[in-house]
């Protein structure tokens, strides 16, 4: 992975409000053509960080580089930002709102009109073009907001909780659109608290808490680093044995199997041997990766 | 710059393309038109001539009344009435009925022979003629002057005709009495001559101006600016709060600098206000032109103040100064609060400030060259209302106008700067209304 692939470089940025450090010495890189999951509990400093990247606020210290250069005002035209708290003008027609948002990104109106028609067609909203926001359902408004975010064909797309309020069909549809984006070597930063979605979509993740980095890296590596000592077991009998075997830290009960977390120094092979020798019937014995949810809970829950 | 223009265009269209703008813009001139033109049009629909029988057994008053009711006499009386009233700025009831008289068709005298009939017979016959619609009215002249006149009419509601008849009868009786007392009509006129006092102001070129009409016009100008400032201040407040409430601000701030966005909003809405004022001023000018062409009303306008294009220019300029001063206050309030309702509560102080300026304009109208008038017409926040009033009432030296413009322009720069500081932080603060110490902190923030 070469240096050229880095779209966004965040270098030890900090931002405080009064005495409260919202973001504290945070550094990370986002690579081109990948979907970057920006995760963390509420109040972790995600929105503050994103606002600094899109140029709404300025970091107290540290630097942000976009496409190899320090960010400046013109970069905003290359970023598409869908905030978590978002809205539309209530009494303005869909077409007029989209034209305005495009104009603010320096897109000439004729070009904007072409793109608006194309996107409305794709989203199956063409007949709502001249309707006002108040006539639209919540899901439709979400789609319009998404169109506003991508109308200027940004190189970096920042989406804060993009799927909230969407029905499953539309979530799938949006995921398709995001994949297309990635394929044109654009970069997507994607913030969510839905770990399952993040797990499905993201190539890289950054987990922050209290303004500080907790974990970062590619999803695979993160999972591998957590996944060595977890085993899924389906076994008849030997319940006592499982509870007493050395090296097992905790047992999570699932519907018809148990997930055993073992101490880093314990050997799962030994566990299997003792299970078999005890005469219990082992129908499943499998190394499992932790889910992102598990990692999240482990990291954030432990920090609390 | 392109983004700034995009904001201006968006805000302008948002205001101008609303129904409320169209209605507000049309309603004002229509109301003016209605008050000025409709009554004239209605009364210009002339009535049928009144067919009247004058029953005069003595034969003394009858001819006098008849001659008093001749079209020439009526026209002459009207000219006099108009002369006496044209200097009054307000259209009083007296004046309106007077000016309406020439709009009726007058009288047709139907001959009727009373010889050999008793009063009862005459009455009976005339009543039946009226019932058959052969005549409209009849007048019975008493045998001596102290007796009662009787006027019976099918159209008792025609106050114009009955008013004219009453005048004619009064004049006739008075003339008859004068003749009996050996006093000629012209002698009486000389004795009765009224002393006339005309109140006029003198402008800076030594020309005379009519002060009553000026007073009215100055008041209208002050009121117009005050109302426009209130309306467009509220428009700004609403627009800012909407972007904050719907969180559009976050998207906007990720696309353009807050200063561009705020200034674009002020300019866009300001242009919309200027458009509306422009339409009003133009339609007012057209209305005055139309009334000038109506020969019936033209003399009434002879005393109207002379408004030059320069004055209109000043008027629009001071509107803009006031608009930017107050709009930046309203934008500041909008970015502090969380809902429109909360915003309206906080709109009270600036509206009070405007109202005080409006009240000061009365002091300016009374004495435009007093020290008080000078100070309030250069003071920031008040000058935009009081200075146009003063310019119309008695144009001050140019240096005072220039001073007023400069002081207010500087105040605008200060207010816009202050507002921009609060706006860029306040627009992203959700949840609760900012306190004043918080706002003070935002202003000083980097």
Write up this protein.
The complex is a heterodimer of chains A (304) and B (446). Chain A has 304 residues and is α/β, with parallel strands linked by helices. Chain A is 35% helix and 30% strand. In chain A, the strands form three sheets. In chain A, strands 6-7-8-3-9-10 form a six-stranded mixed β-sheet, with helices on both faces. Chain A has a four-stranded antiparallel β-sheet with strand order 2-1-4-5, with helices on one face. A four-stranded antiparallel β-sheet of chain A has the order 12-13-11-14. Mean pLDDT of chain B is 81; it is low at 85-103. With 446 residues, chain B is mainly alpha-helical. The longest helix of chain B has 36 residues, at 258-293. Chains A and B meet through α2 of A and α1 and α10 of B.
List the helices and strands and how they pair.
The complex is a heterodimer of chains A (304) and B (446).
Chain A: E1 6-17, E2 20-31, E3 35-39, H1 46-53, E4 61-66, E5 69-70, E6 79-82, H2 94-103, H3 109-122, H4 138-150, E7 156-160, H5 168-183, E8 187-192, H6 195-201, E9 204-209, E10 212-218, H7 219-227, E11 230-236, H8 239-244, E12 248-253, E13 258-262, H9 268-277, E14 281-287, H10 292-303
Parallel strand pairs in A: 3-8, 3-9, 6-7, 7-8
Antiparallel strand pairs in A: 1-2, 1-4, 4-5, 9-10, 11-13, 11-14, 12-13
Helix pairs in contact in A: 2-3, 2-4
Chain B: H1 2-16, H2 19-44, E1 50-55, H3 61-68, H4 71-85, H5 93-100, E2 107-109, H6 119-131, E3 137-140, E4 150-153, H7 159-180, H8 185-192, E5 200-202, E6 208-210, H9 211-245, H10 248-253, H11 258-293, H12 298-301, H13 309-336, H14 340-346, H15 348-366, H16 371-378, H17 383-393, H18 398-426, H19 436-444
Helix pairs in contact in B: 1-11, 2-11, 3-7, 9-11, 9-13, 9-15, 9-17, 11-13, 11-18, 13-17, 13-18, 15-16, 15-17, 16-17, 17-18, 18-19
Compact summary:
Chain A is of the alpha/beta class.
């Amino acid at each position: 992975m070469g240096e050229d692939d880095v779209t966004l470089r965040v270098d030890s940025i900090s931002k405080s409000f009064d005495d409260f450090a919202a973001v504290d010495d945070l550094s990370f890189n986002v690579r081109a053509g990948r979907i970057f999951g920006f995760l963390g509990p509420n109040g972790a400093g995600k929105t503050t960080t994103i606002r600094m990247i899109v140029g709404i606020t300025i970091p107290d210290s540290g630097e942000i580089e976009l496409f190899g250069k320090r960010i400046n005002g013109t970069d905003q035209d290359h970023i598409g930002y869908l905030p978590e708290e978002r809205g539309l003008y209530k009494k303005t027609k869909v077409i007029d709102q989209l034209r305005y948002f495009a104009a603010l990104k320096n897109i000439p109106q004729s070009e904007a009109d072409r793109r608006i028609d194309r996107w409305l067609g794709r989203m199956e909203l063409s007949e709502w073009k001249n309707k006002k926001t108040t006539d639209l359902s919540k899901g439709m408004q979400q789609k319009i907001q998404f169109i506003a975010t991508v109308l200027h064909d940004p190189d970096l797309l920042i989406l804060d909780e993009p799927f909230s309020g969407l029905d499953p069909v539309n979530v799938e549809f949006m995921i398709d659109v995001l994949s297309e984006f990635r394929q044109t070597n654009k970069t997507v930063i994607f913030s969510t608290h839905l770990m399952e979605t993040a797990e499905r979509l993201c190539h890289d993740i950054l987990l922050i808490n209290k303004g500080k980095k907790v974990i970062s890296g590619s999803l695979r590596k993160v999972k591998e680093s957590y996944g060595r000592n977890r085993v899924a077991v389906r076994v008849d009998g030997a319940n006592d044995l499982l509870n007493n075997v050395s090296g097992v830290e905790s047992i999570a009960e699932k519907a018809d199997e148990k997930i055993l977390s073992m101490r880093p120094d314990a050997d799962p092979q030994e566990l299997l041997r003792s299970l078999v020798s005890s005469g219990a019937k082992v129908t499943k014995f499998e190394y499992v990766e932790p889910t992102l949810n598990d990692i999240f809970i482990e990291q954030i829950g432990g920090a609390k | 710059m392109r983004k700034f223009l995009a904001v201006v265009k968006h805000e302008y269209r948002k205001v101008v393309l609303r129904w409320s703008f169209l209605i507000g813009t049309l309603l004002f001139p229509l109301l003016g038109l209605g008050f000025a033109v409709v009554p004239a049009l209605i009364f210009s629909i002339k009535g049928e001539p009144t067919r009247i029988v004058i029953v005069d057994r003595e034969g003394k008053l009858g001819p006098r009344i008849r001659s008093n009711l001749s079209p020439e006499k009526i026209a002459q009386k009207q000219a006099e009435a108009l002369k006496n009233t044209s200097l009054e700025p307000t259209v009083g009831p007296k004046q309106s009925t007077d000016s309406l008289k020439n709009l009726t068709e007058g009288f047709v005298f139907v001959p009727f022979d009373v010889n050999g009939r008793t009063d009862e017979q005459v009455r009976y016959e005339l009543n039946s003629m009226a019932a058959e619609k052969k005549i409209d009215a009849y007048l019975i002249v008493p045998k001596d002057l102290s007796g009662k006149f009787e006027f019976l009419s099918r159209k008792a509601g025609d106050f114009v005709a009955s008013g004219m008849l009453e005048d004619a009868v009064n004049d006739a009786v008075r003339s008859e009495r004068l003749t009996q007392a050996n006093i000629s009509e012209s002698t009486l006129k000389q004795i009765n001559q009224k002393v006339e006092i005309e109140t006029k102001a003198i402008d800076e070129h030594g020309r005379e101006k009519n002060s009553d009409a000026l007073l009215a016009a100055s008041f209208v100008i002050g009121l117009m600016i005050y109302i426009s400032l209130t309306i467009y201040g509220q428009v700004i407040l609403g627009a800012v709060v909407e972007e904050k409430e719907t969180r559009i601000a976050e998207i906007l701030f990720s696309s353009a600098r807050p200063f561009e966005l705020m200034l674009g909003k002020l300019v866009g809405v300001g242009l919309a206000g200027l458009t509306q004022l422009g339409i009003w001023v133009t339609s007012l000018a057209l209305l005055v032109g139309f009334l000038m062409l109506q020969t019936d009303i033209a003399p009434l306008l002879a005393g109207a103040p002379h408004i030059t294009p320069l004055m209109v220019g000043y008027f629009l300029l001071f509107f803009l100064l006031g608009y930017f001063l107050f709009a930046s206050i309203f934008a500041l309030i909008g970015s502090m609060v969380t809902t429109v309702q909360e915003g309206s509560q906080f709109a009270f102080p600036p509206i009070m400030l405007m109202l005080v300026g409006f009240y000061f304009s009365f002091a300016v109208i009374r004495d435009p060259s007093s020290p008080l008038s000078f100070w309030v017409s250069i003071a920031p926040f008040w000058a935009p209302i009081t200075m146009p009033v003063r310019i119309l009432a008695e144009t001050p030296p140019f240096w005072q106008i220039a001073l007023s413009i400069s002081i207010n322009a500087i105040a605008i720069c200060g207010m816009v700067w202050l507002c921009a500081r609060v706006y860029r932080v306040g627009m992203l603060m959700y949840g609760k209304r900012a306190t004043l110490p918080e706002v003070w902190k935002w202003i000083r923030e980097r």
